[in-house]
C-alpha cells in the first residue's frame, strides 16, 4: 500500500501576500481522495521526532536556537518565513514524516511526503523556506539505524539542493545529484557530487534526454540501496520562480521515469514534494497529483 505522510500543520497559515503557496498542502490530499487515487488508509500522520536524527544532520547550537525562537533577524529574513513556534513545530513534523516514510518505503517499495523537500536547509542555518533538511535527516536515520548504507539523493527541483550538498560534501556514503536551472536561485551554488545545470527555457525534450541519459548510469555507478527523490514541480513553464519551460506532460514523464526505474531495480524510494509556484494553484495540484497517480499505477 502506498503510504503518504500528511499532517494538518503542513498548511500552516502565513501572512497575507506571502508568495509560498501553503494551500497546496491542503488541496493535494483532498484532490487525491476526491478522484479515488488514494483513500484514508493511504495517509499517516507524523508527529514530533526524537532529536537524535535531527542532530545527526544539524548542528546542536543551530537546532536549539531554532527551537527556542532565537534566530537573528538576518537569519529569519534568509529563511524566508516569519519565525513562530507553529512553524518550527511544522518543520520537525515534516522531518518525522520523511523518517517514517523511509520505513514504509523499505516495506512497500515507495512512500511519499505531501510536504518536505527542504533541500536549502544547511547543517547550521535555514534558507529559502527550509529550516530542517528532511531528506538529509531521513538518509542519516537509515544509515544510523543500519537500514541502509549507500544512499542516492535525486533532486529534480528547479533550484539546486545547496543545503543537501553542504551536509554531505565530505561523505562518500551519500551521493547528491541535482539537476536544476543554471541561472536560478541559489546564485552561489554549492558543489553536489553531480550537478547538471540547465539553461533558462529548457523544455521537455532536452530535460528528459539529460535525465534519461544520466540516471541509469548513475545508479549503476553508485549502487545505492535506498533513493530519495525530490520531485519539485517548479520546472513547469508556468512557474513564477522556475525559468524552465517544461509542460505538465513532461513533468509527468520525468516522474514516471524515476519511479519506474527505481521500481524495476527494486530500490526503495522516498519522495518529498519540493517546490511549485505556478500562478494557478490548479496547475500545481495537477502536477503534484500526477506523482501519486504514477506511484499507485507502477507499484500497486
UniProtKB/TrEMBL annotation:
Q: Which UniProt keywords apply?
A: Hydrolase
| GO MF | histone deacetylase activity; hydrolase activity
Q: Does the keyword field hold Hydrolase?
A: yes
* GO biological process annotation, one example: epigenetic regulation of gene expression
Histone deacetylase domain: which residues?
Answer: 18-280
Q: Which InterPro entries match?
A: HDAC_classIV, HDACs, His_deacetylse_dom, His_deacetylse_dom_sf, Ureohydrolase_dom_sf
One Pfam match, given by its short name, reads: Hist_deacetyl
The record's family statement is: Belongs to the histone deacetylase family.
This chain belongs to the protein called Histone deacetylase
Record organism: Christiangramia lutea
Amino acid at each position: 500500500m502506498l503510504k503518504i505522510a500528511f499532517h494538518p500543520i503542513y498548511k500552516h497559515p502565513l501572512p497575507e501576500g506571502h508568495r509560498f503557496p501553503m494551500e497546496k498542502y491542503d488541496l493535494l490530499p483532498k484532490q487525491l481522495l476526491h478522484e479515488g487515487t488514494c483513500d484514508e488508509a493511504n495517509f499517516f500522520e507524523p508527529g514530533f521526532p526524537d532529536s537524535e536524527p535531527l542532530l545527526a544532520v544539524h548542528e546542536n547550537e543551530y537546532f536549539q536556537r531554532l527551537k527556542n525562537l532565537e534566530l537573528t533577524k538576518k537569519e529569519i529574513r534568509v529563511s524566508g518565513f516569519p519565525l513562530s513556534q507553529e512553524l518550527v513545530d511544522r518543520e520537525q513534523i515534516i522531518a518525522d514524516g520523511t523518517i517514517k516514510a523511509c520505513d514504509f518505503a523499505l516495506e512497500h517499495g515507495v512512500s511519499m511526503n505531501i510536504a518536505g523537500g527542504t533541500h536549502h536547509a544547511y547543517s547550521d542555518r535555514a534558507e529559502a523556506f527550509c529550516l530542517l533538511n528532511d531528506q538529509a535527516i531521513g538518509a542519516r536515520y537509515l544509515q544510523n539505524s543500519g537500514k541502509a548504507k549507500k544512499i542516492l539523493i535525486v533532486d529534480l527541483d528547479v533550484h539546486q539542493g545547496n543545503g543537501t550538498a553542504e551536509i554531505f560534501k565530505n561523505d562518500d556514503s551519500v551521493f547528491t545529484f541535482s539537476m536544476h536551472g543554471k541561472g536560478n536561485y541559489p546564485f552561489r551554488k554549492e558543489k553536489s557530487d553531480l550537478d547538471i545545470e540547465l539553461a533558462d527555457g529548457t523544455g521537455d525534450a532536452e530535460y528528459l534526454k539529460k535525465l534519461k541519459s544520466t540516471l541509469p548510469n548513475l545508479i549503476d555507478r553508485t549502487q545505492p540501496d535506498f533513493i530519495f527523490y525530490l520531485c519539485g514541480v517548479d520546472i513547469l513553464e508556468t512557474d513564477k520562480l522556475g525559468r524552465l519551460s517544461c509542460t505538465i506532460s513532461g513533468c509527468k514523464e520525468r516522474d514516471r521515469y524515476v519511479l519506474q526505474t527505481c521500481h524495476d531495480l527494486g530500490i526503495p524510494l522516498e519522495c518529498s514534494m519540493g517546490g511549485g509556484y505556478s500562478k494557478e494553484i490548479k496547475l500545481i495540484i495537477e502536477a503534484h497529483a500526477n506523482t501519486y497517480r504514477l506511484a499507485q499505477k507502477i507499484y500497486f
